[in-house]
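In response to a reviewer's request, we include the raw inputs and outputs for one of the modeled complexes. The two entities were modeled together in a single run.
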Amino acid sequence: MRALDWVVLVGTLAAIVAYGAWKSRQVNDAEAWLRGGRDLRWWTIGLSIMATQASAVTFLSTPGQAYEDGMGFVQFYFGLPVAMVILSATIVPIYYRLKVYTAYEYLEGRFDRKTRLLTALLFLVQRGLGAGLSIYAPAIIVSTVLGWPVGWTTLVIGTIVVGITVSGGTKVVSQTQTWQMAVMLGGMALALVLVIRALPAEVSTGQAVRVAGALGKLNLVDFSPRLDTRYTFWSGMTGGLFVALAYFGTDQSQVQRYLSGGTLAESRLGLLMNGLVKIPMQLFILFVGLMVFVFYQFHEPPLFFQRATVERVYATPAGAELRALEVDHARVFAEKRGALERLVAASRRGDADAEARAKTEAQAADGEDRALRGKARAVIARAVPGAETKDADYVFITYVTRHLPTGVVGLLIAVILCAAISSTASALNALGSTTVVDFYKTTVRPAASDRHYLVAAKLFTVVWGAIAMAFAAFAAQLDNLIQAVNILGSVFYGPTLGVFLVGFFLPRVRGTPVFWAAIAAQGAVFAVFALSSIGFLWYNVIGCAIVVVLALALDAAAPRAAETA
Amino acid sequence: MANPAADAPRAAGEGEAPPAPFRSWRELYAMVIASLALVVVVLAALTRAYR
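The model returned the following structure tokens for the whole complex.
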């Protein structure tokens, strides 16, 4: 980081904080703080929904995912547009009709208070821990690469988030998110232009795509019905659909975004905008990663992208082994580059036979290189027990810090921090609101003044911010952070979605059966997580299915009179 | 915080119509699903072309 990078980084963050502070002047009552005054237009809602989902991990991990496994990750989002349509047609009108502040409020009217409090509690636990991870995950990666103290990075992100959320509530969170989205997408677009310009002169964008395809990275759609492949068309349309239904339909950090719409139409349009734009946006981020991959086919990449870990291995007896693998890696890289240069040249002159030969050679060298990376991981795991051996999250930031010009590095770090701030702000906003509306107002102070609830919501947001930062400090103990973020969501979403689906579509089922079904389903999902190797995307389906089936069975078994007595 | 008067226009269904040129929400939903189908078809074709 040079002086210009610091100017760009601090300037961007300061501008967003100043904009948030300026907009916060209009937020004077609980209604404005909790539901944003309900006058937001659909594009602000849509951008806010997207900024909430796009965490820093999205911008760090997704390009790395394209680098490691290709573009297939996009299939995870195939269920999302369908979910947006289902939610717009069913759940959103119900929330509007009931004028709820939180998603869980609906459950008290439909079932009973204990079911409302149970789902709200599941949300608080999951999102409270998730907020800590969404601060810590980028803090550790950025700090590791740039040599900053991780505590300071956590503190800066946490303080900005708490400041914006407490002062402005829902409306200002959404309004600042639109500008943060502009910074994020603008920064990524600039990164894409620069990586394409950095490719060798004879490699056009079309040929870069051909190179990526030759090495198996253009695996955009996989229709095979394999359960052991994480991302296929079918897992996206089932697991991905369930995740999207649960996340956008029942997670208060998202529900709060579209309930701030001026009308039902604005909220629906915001969700449908997300449905139309999300897949192209993910394709765009994956494409940046794909071009970084092609860049590293012509410029030697490190054998292992997490430099700090490599330095630790060098200091152990296994250091010599790792250095020997790096020498092999340099040789294989030169062979692969030669084959790819022949592939590009053959493609330019239209020589299909030579192109096919070069492709086979490049694939063989790529296979050898992958084997070397596997061996390097094994050496690292042996030399530094407990070290993270997955380096995909470090690919993009390594590229940014080593190969982008001064100023752009600061902008890309701002992109990552903006993503962390925007997703965590929605989380804290929702945590503060849920605590006040679903717990404080129902069980502690049912009839206080508007001013009292506003102050309470702000205080609870500060408390949740402190808990998130404290958990971020604890997160250093977790081995695989990114996976922890994904698994955490999936463990809790299934049962919650099940409760809502029973509420919406099975009108005869009563509160007590669904309450016990949800508790049993949550226990079952914990057991599946602890005892089986089933992919985490399926937790949503399992948890949801158990609630629906068990609630139906318990309801049928329970005498009707007992429930109404 | 309790059901302010601002809720009245919503309850009356103001602003419920989809934007032009869509005549109903169902048409707009169909467009979103059709866009998804088109994207999947294009991506599947690209996957085959660059295998």
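As requested, we also summarize the result in words. Residues 318 and 382 of chain A are 8 Å apart (CA to CA). Chain A touches chain B through 44 residues (CB under 8 Å).
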